[in-house]
């Protein structure tokens, strides 16, 4: 938000460059915007621009994939990445109750640092909410 844009005088210009690299695609703008929301150094913004420059491919579906990959690569830890990848095993229109999804993750060993499902449920809820904030799912979970 404003805190990120105001963290350095050059960041607003770099943010415009990042937005231009998204080619006007709403999903790309939202996904990259959320991935960059906490980035406050020039190095992070310049790196993002370089990565996005390298990823430009001719077709729309090939442009969206690199943007989603960038956002995936910026997830904070391997557990969150594994949980997201697990969800990709389901069809696009498949709806999973949040509690059941977290139970699946627990049974698959993705939340294996916990011995009790109740503890894993708290971490799972956090992961689901974090991924929802990143617009990976809109209606995947209830």
Q: What topology does this entry show?
A:
Blueprint: H1 2-5, H2 11-21, H3 26-36, H4 42-54, H5 60-73, H6 78-87, H7 98-107, H8 117-133
Helix pairs in contact: 2-4, 3-5, 7-8
Protein described:
The protein has about 140 residues and is mainly alpha-helical. The protein folds into 2 domains: about 1-75, no CATH class; about 80-135, no CATH class. It has helices spanning about 1-5, 10-20, 25-35, 40-55, 60-75, 80-85, 100-105, 115-135. The longest helix is centred in the last third of the chain and has 17 residues, at about 115-135. It is elongated and about 50 Å long. The model has no long low-confidence stretch (mean pLDDT about 80).
Terminal-residue CA separation: 28 Å
Instruction: Write the element-wise H/E pattern from the N-terminal end onward.
Output: HHHHHHHH
Number of strands: 0
Globally, the shape reads elongated
Strand residue content = under 5%
Q: State mean pLDDT (0 to 100 scale).
A: 80
Number of domains: 2
Considering DSSP H and I runs of 4 or more, what fraction of the residues is helical?
Answer: 55-70%
- Which blocks of ≥5 consecutive residues have pLDDT under 50? none
Oligomer: single chain
| Main sheet record | none
What integer value in Å does the Rg equal?
Answer: 17 Å
How many helices? The count is 8
Structural class: mainly alpha
Protein name: NB-ARC domain-containing protein
Keywords: Plant defense
GO molecular function: ADP binding
InterPro entries: Apaf_helical (IPR042197), Disease_R_plants (IPR044974), P-loop_NTPase (IPR027417), WH-like_DNA-bd_sf (IPR036388)
